[in-house]
Amino acid sequence: MSKIVSAAEAVARIADGAVVTVSSSSALGCPDAVLKALGERFDAEGHPRDLTTLHPIAAGDMYGVKGVDHIAKDGLLKRILGGSYPSGSSNLPMPEIWKMIVENRVLAYNVPSGIMFDMHRDVAARRPGVLTRVGLDTFVDPIRQGCAMNEVAAAEPIVFRQEFGGQTWLHFPNITPNVAIIRATTADEDGNLTYEHEGAYLGGLDQAIATRNHRGLVIAQVKRVTASGSLRPHDVHVPGHLVDLVVVAPDQRQTTETDYDPAISGQIMRPWSSFSLAEHGVEKIIARRAALELRRGQTANLGFGISAMVPRILLEAGEPQAVTWAIEQGAVGGMPLTGFAFGCASNAYGYVPSPNQFSYFQGGGFDMSFLSFLEVDVQGNVNVSKLGKKPYLTAGCGGFVDITANARKIVFSGFFEAAAEFDLSENGLRISKPGKFTKMVEEVEHVTFSGARAVETGQEAIYITERCVIRLTPEGLVATEIMPGIEPARDIVAASQGRVKVAENAITMPKSLLVEGPMELAL
């Protein structure tokens, strides 16, 4: 009996009340054709109903790959757990899934991506759920929001505090998937899957194992089919005995607004000269100062926002391979991409499945992490996961909580104020118009990183802004380096309403950060 079926035939096998796990990272690896067919079946039949969906990383984007929005329908979707959610520009309409969340029409939870992959591994091995210290004293912790994104979710908790071995842990009881929807490039007639055009493996293998171990249904969307036995065994990432049905979608995109780029999947290596440099401006100056924290031979993690510019600073300095970058989707080394291709890398040394990458992150095996912030409070807490006024402008926590839980050193980057205007020259930076509000707040809206826990465990946390470098101390936030042209009393202390102090021995940041040409890096 052939495993090759249409998308409609595949989703016809999904029952009411099923738990469906989906492998994706925005548009990277998104099985969009199968999700579209699932939404269309519900529109035509009113079934399946009351699904729970699991998304370790977001499914779909706001730029042409709908992903989860295909199934964001009342009656179809009852509960959703996502490491992240589709996000984008305020100029675009709010995604349907976000409308359901803010209107309390679906139980919605934001669970760190690494923990979500842990959940699949533990349910696969029939262990009693995830026991972890990742997320303590953040919004993940039941003493705060317990991952709940709305009121209906808060009424049905999914995580509990547990005392074990003299320590406090977070316990996530098992949620067993009945269906897995994953994606690859090629399937043979037996369902063996290879990923040669993909920019990452993501977590499809673990999701398939978790589902198959509980006698569930595994659906794989692929670009093409080849004859049985024609795939090299070493190229097969998900073997056919784990795959029930194969859906062919020849037009599947590699990632957001990218049909296919062979450098993303490692099939060619781009010349370093082909990568664009960071445009000169205030964001580049922040990224330059962040890059000064690096040393040759280190391994660093990278997040979205200003931090994503740091590899381009090394590129401009002629040192593109001085540091090994590791990103949560799985690429290791090379040049992490920005913009629509964020989450991919060109010229990568290798690709690690996301669950393994998160084990590396959660254990703090890397040297430092470069991340961004939306706001920082007096305790050093950071929020990147919630914006109450326009929630879909942030994707949620993604891997941020997993990465920061045990990182030895974290370099956060962002603007001191929102929408301030600057006069920038090679001699200094001056505030020509104050911002609408400070990002240095009394209390963050959402605790994605716990400053108090960082102080307790001895983590090094640095916050780099266009005005100063701030360090987290037991006494609070202290500016230790000042940008040339900045008046500390006015532009830092007063602008933060006294929440950031200036160290008595604060130094001036080097003017080399401000030059338009390449900046030398002493790696």
Automatic annotation (TrEMBL):
- SMART domains per the record? CoA_trans
Instruction: Tell me if Transport is a UniProt keyword of this record.
Output: no
Any keyword Transferase?
A: yes
User: Could you name the domain of life of the organism this protein comes from?
Assistant: Bacteria
An example GO BP is: ketone body catabolic process
The record's catalysed reaction(s) read: an acyl-CoA + acetate = a carboxylate + acetyl-CoA
Query: InterPro entries under this entry?
Result: 3-oxoacid_CoA-transferase, CoA_trans_fam_I, NagB/RpiA_transferase-like
Active-site residues annotated for this sequence? E328 (5-glutamyl coenzyme a thioester intermediate)
Q: Give the transmembrane ranges.
A: none
Q: What is its EC number?
A: 2.8.3.8
Q: Which SUPFAM superfamilies does its entry note? A: NagB/RpiA/CoA transferase-like
Q: A Gene Ontology MF term for this entry? A: acetate CoA-transferase activity
Q: Which UniProt keywords apply?
A: Transferase
Give the protein family: Belongs to the 3-oxoacid CoA-transferase family.
Role noted for this protein: CoA transferase having broad substrate specificity for short-chain acyl-CoA thioesters with the activity decreasing when the length of the carboxylic acid chain exceeds four carbons.
Q: What is this protein called?
A: Acetate CoA-transferase YdiF
